[in-house]
Amino acid sequence: MFEVYGTPGVDVYISPSVERGRERADARRWHFDTGLEIIVVMNSPSNDLNDSHVQISYHSSHEPLPLAYAVLYLTCVDIALDCDLNCEGRQNRSFVDKRQWVWGPSGYGAILLVNCDKDDVNCYDQDNCDQHVHCLQDLEDMSVMVLRTQGPAALFNDHRLILHTSSYDAKWARVFHTCGPEDSCEAYRHVLGQNKVSYEVPHFHGDEERFFVEGLSFPDASFTGLVSFHVTLLDDSNEDFSESPIFTDTVVFRVAPWIMTPSTLPPLEVYVCRVRNNTCFVDAVAELARKAGCKLTICPQNENRNDRWIQDEMELGYVQAPHKTFPVVFDSPRNGELQDFPYKRILGPDFGYVTREPQDSSVSGLDSFGNLEVSPPVVANGKEYPLGRILIGGNLPGSSGRRVTQVVRDFLHAQRVQPPVELFVDWLAVGHVDEFLSFVPAPDGKGFRMLLASPGACFKLFQEKRKWGHGRALLFKGVVGDKQISTVSINQVLSNANLISYNKFVQSCIDWNREVLKRELGLTEQDIIDIPQLFKVERRKAVAFFPDLVNMLVLGKHLGIPKPFGPIINGQCCLEEKVRSLLEPLGLHCTFIDDFTPYHMLHGEVHCGTNVRRQPFSFKWWNMVP
Fold this sequence. Notes:
Keywords: Cytoplasm
Strand content: 25-35%
Mean pLDDT: 94
Number of strands: 40
Structural class: alpha+beta
Pfam families: PAD, PAD_M, PAD_N
Radius of gyration: 33 Å
Strand order of the largest sheet: 7-9-14-11-12
Main location: cytoplasm
Subcellular location: Cytoplasm
Low-confidence stretches: none
Family: Belongs to the protein arginine deiminase family.
Largest sheet: 5 strands, antiparallel
Helix content: 10-25%
């Protein structure tokens, strides 16, 4: 039999078996039984080496005095690698496993931002492109990690603390150690990341060492977004043997995803290019931005080199952690004359940059970001998508048509919080989803309406007008431009068998997408508004017959819609009148902008020629369950 006692501050428990749990050891004398365990708990760090102990006395039923004693000397050191585990939604924050990252409102886990902005305007590259901290503002984009140690200082005469990560994780994050006055950039030493996988931690600040962690890359096909860091206490006291690990603590970070913003979120800033023939268009966009209370940024001609398609060049999203949110521009691989604008003009303090380009020449027109949109928040098939779903265009299943290049698709899928839906756009000459759909805010229902281009709705409208005696009313009357545009009457449109036949094909393509969108976004017919629109064929693909009405600029309740130059009936364009009747009951204000010569004639419209930075979602991405 035996008795066991601990010095003050040491709690000793006996666990007779797994089934019986544990009891305090000092309650009685114990029999030696197979499977019996002694559990020792120290409640606070030691002040000195070996300042606590556990004593075991061994007894025989035949002897009154102990047969022998064993003493285990104890030194308690408290070592913890801590960071913001972002667990404000949990009722009990103490039982959090730092080695795990858990999604959802009751989840937890540290978050890392890709430090892809440029806080030091004197640097050419993004902040995370080198191993230095160039300005103190750069630290605001990083996550703090703290190593806390409590215990006798003498322990570290023959023990070492090693901060380390795997060679795989070292590719995705970089760690700086605060090694001097915090108001000096030189104090931040690069200690982990890329070619550095371990670091012996010196004791600069006693019980607490501060580290700053920056993300180097967004989640992608080869990177889940999770990065782990460890601190290990090594025993170096025996000169005859190699070091032995005593304890390891681990924290896991998830790199924050790049998040798109739908057109239903409030606008903050509008971008447009000034080119040689679009002065009136820029003025109209500027006036709409003024009404909506938005900042306006005009890319001058010497920077855009007459490339007006700013929607195709980039997509404006954001990244978010509990401590920081900032916008990030996703630069498309189209690389037209605007290719330098996102990096040279938008990248800056608290405005990040990311791009994905294929190694080969697989870029097509579908890789322009007019072919990259996102829905408002939806619920589909019992699953919530609180940040909406990304919409990209491709070809039909099993066909060999155009698709978005693989590296862009991989990037979008890897973000996880806005799972992409691929639509059928290869029937279009340009091939962008914004040619046949858009979203506008609404005060009821799901909070939005999806607008779909509809040849059927247009033919129905024109047939009604002909029935009321307006068959001779002309389209394209009043178009001003370098080229003379022939007018066409409603009668001519309705008697053009080829146009009617081709638009039946177009309607079937849009109907295919309509069903996909209803299924994948959980929409009903009440959520969809059909906007009258006709298409014509060029080189066996579809282009808009008159300016594409759904290709609009949405700035809150203010809509900048391509002026269709439809038939004038009783002094009013019947297409404009129809669109107003569909959208104004939702509290929306329709402004029709003449984009005919500078955009429509080049197979684009208002949306193609503008871009918008919007407010981030109020919903925090880590509270969803992918």
